[in-house]
Amino acid sequence: LASYGVELRNAVDAARYRLKQLDRLASEWLAVSEAWRLAPHDEGPSLAPWGQLQAETFDEIDAFLAAFVRVSLLVFPEHNTGFAAERGVALQAVADLPPDSVLGDREFRDGWLHHDERFDYAVEHGLGHAAQRFTVAGDVSDRMKSAHLRIVEMDTRIVHYRDRTGGYRQASLRAMGDALKHLDGKWQLLVL
Prior knowledge:
This protein has helices at 5-38, 48-75, 82-94, 107-113, 115-124, 142-147, 173-191, and strands spanning 130-135, 148-153, 158-162, 168-172. The protein is α+β, with helices and mostly antiparallel strands. The protein has a 4-stranded mixed beta sheet with strand order 1-2-3-4. 26% of the residues are buried.
């Protein structure tokens, strides 16, 4: 198992770094949102910072998922036979991970990275197909969900997204971060 130490450590560190960046961006986005809400409408601040922060958030989620899937594939391999299966079972045991760990769930990653397929499905089946919406949890509604393929709750770090059949699912970036932290702690104990 020690052979996987550097790769696992690099992937976990990269994913956790991206989550810290997402936390920073979310704080900035929330501050801009509050300034906009409190400003007189005829003198409100520019919307440009919102657009920039949303673009950066989108990019950070992409980068986070790239690192996250590296961890996921090492610990929960796609191929459940042979050496890969043995590696997965051993790493899961060392990290004390249940079979249903969020680290093994790649549906969100697939939904995010295969956006073109989700977009095609939404258009073909008459579902709402606006790309994404950045908002706060209290503003998420069924109407908003029906109109957007992805919704990012900046205050809770929950992402709503469509699955392969057009259904709505959600992923908690914080829960994913907690699972990475747990794995990191267990792995550090192993290599010490």
